[in-house]
Amino acid sequence: MPLTSNDPLSSAIRIAGTEEHFLDPLGSDDARLGRLRYLSGGMGPPLVLLHTVRTQAEHFRHLIPLVRERYTVYALDLPGMGYSQIVPGASYEEPAMREAVKSLITRLDLRDVTLLGESMGATLALTTAADLPERVRRVVAINAYDYAGGIARSSLLARFIVTGVLAPGVGPTVAGVEPKPIVRAVLRGGLGDTAALHDDYVDELLKVGRRPGYPVVARAVYGNLPSLIAARARYPEVRAPIHLIYGEKDWSRPSDRQANKQILPAAEFVEVPGAGHFIVLERPDVAAKVLNDAMRIASAPKAAA
Fold it and tell me: Quick check: 197 and 281 in contact, CB under 8 A?
């Protein structure tokens, strides 16, 4: 039976032109990833979208309509997040989440793939491209989450919350208590334009946070930052063209951005004035322009030699 917007396991946010799908695990290796949920729609070469820490596929609700006439979009709920299955004892370290992204791409036999990720998703986009060079044609990495501190740099409130979530003993309890004003304030700490955070999206994240077992997932995801930092070592292995996009007010410091520019000297680098960490929420037009321009260039007739 299809899920409806009133189903507690279904998103109340609908993105026109997309449908919800689930990828069931095959064999014991896939079982640790669990059942993966993704949204798909559009036309053209595949575009895989990878969301940020503590969010889900609906994070791309404003970007998808801007690109679906040029790409077939696949927006994944990473393991345990959104409406993907929560598997007891599962790992949420970078290699485990990367396996989920690779599973989506290989199980659906996607080729000529463009990977776009924001924050944690940006790091996963780069490491997945390193692992699947024969399938990935381009990477768009937005505000890569690969530096010490992470979301704790956002504000004193965010630092207090993350410290509590990761604390021994009380951490799972703190992770399960999410008053709406606190969640809204933490998310606004990642925006240059706070009006870009819509109430229905906050409600959606809170609903997901009430899923049984989700506090354990949230705690593990907040605690996986060292594995994301370690994953930077894989960036130079990427053979596809890379676009690095940073918000002027992102949590990363100029030294963090410069470090990635140095290890990826051929990457196109864009800094978005006034934007924060969640660029896909406040400036989806920036990512859409990078994607659509790349498709226009690829589709343009080649001049005769």
Answer: yes
DSSP string, 207-241: HHHTSTTHHHHHHHHHTTHHHHHHGGGGGGG--S-
Residue 272, SS3 per DSSP = strand
DSSP 8-state code for residue 180: H
What is the C-alpha to C-alpha distance for residues 234 and 131, in angstroms, rounded to an integer? 9
Cα torsion 128, 132, 136, 139: sign:
positive
Strand duo 72-76 + 46-50: pairing: parallel
Residue with tokens 């208590």: 177
Contacts of 70 (CB under 8 A, 6+ apart): 42, 43, 44, 291, 292, 295
Per residue in 197-235, pLDDT (tens digit) is 999 999 999 999 999 999 889 888 888 999 999 999 999
